[in-house]
Input
Amino acid sequence: MRTTIGYLLLAVCASAGIAAAEVASDKPAAIVVFPKLQVSTSASARVDTLIELSNTSRTEPALAHCFYLDAGSHCTTTGAPCRRSAECGGGSCVQGWTETDFQVHLTARQPLAWVITDGLGSMQHPVPIDGRHRNGPPDPTDSTHKPQTNAGTLVPAVGTPFTGELKCVVVGRDDRPSEKNVLVGRATITRIEADGGLDVEVYNAIGVQAITGTNNGDGRLRLGGDGAEYEGCPNTLIVNHFFDFAVDPVHPDSHITSALTLVPCSEDLISGDTRFGSTVATILVYNEFEQRLSTSVVVDCLFESQLSLIDTTQPQRSAFSVGTGGTLVGQMRIRPTTHGLLAVLSEHHTAKKDGHVASAMVNVDQQGRRGAGDEIRFR
Output
């Protein structure tokens, strides 16, 4: 959407009930994943991301061990940021993978928010409940019932540019994983254009729920499969989308393109080895007549692409373009091979007259659960 925006944070009143574990974007969980964070600055626009992370417990504080995963790509020849090798003047565009971890302390029913280029917990951007001037309710998990606070929260600021992921795991005071399904989150990506226009995309973090009574407390988190401690990742991701370059049916003076972001469920956050969660994603593309085309991509740490650049460098000839698809809308069915995947989709409506963009981001649908498990190594 393209509008003026203000942020109002409300206390979260829901609590985690007893239910079957799930991977979902609308339920509290013990692991939350924000697949897409962006920061960039250019002559035409400035892009930044606001993170909201909330504790849904009515009475108890929550401690989250979080990880920024910077997957930005750079040219081998100049070191300049890039998206494709064609931008590198004979060199290659190579994706990086850098992990930065930190802790977030949340009081009961509390949301915290920060802009990722500012961080949280510094002198310039202090936490709201610091334990000196402001205190939260008594902590029922502490023998002395000391007040709950945000003390200990120190979220680092990311650099510019930044393309990556945020992952948070609920832990105890000893940094061992906890079975508490209490976290929910939301990301807001803002684009402020040079002429003052504002484009905003919002999506919910994807939550992976813990399975009660299964966590052994080590630093290897099992998602599905044998010895599962958390719900398994989806077997198939289902993405309903417009074909690229389709004319907007509501506003015919604009056309539509979309971008897909995929992140692996398995990650080694200790060594940073991208091969640990690497997988091949098989993508089937159906049009409205159920005619099918297919392609595949390799996902190491983070995959992001305009749909019509997934399978070719010539977008108009892509299986995801409206000319090839032959209908206005289609459906992707994405099935990973060796490791699970999570995804979000960005949809961009570009005005033909002045090039202004209005965007929206959506969480994708899922089908089934993988028989083989995934693993996150975090300590």
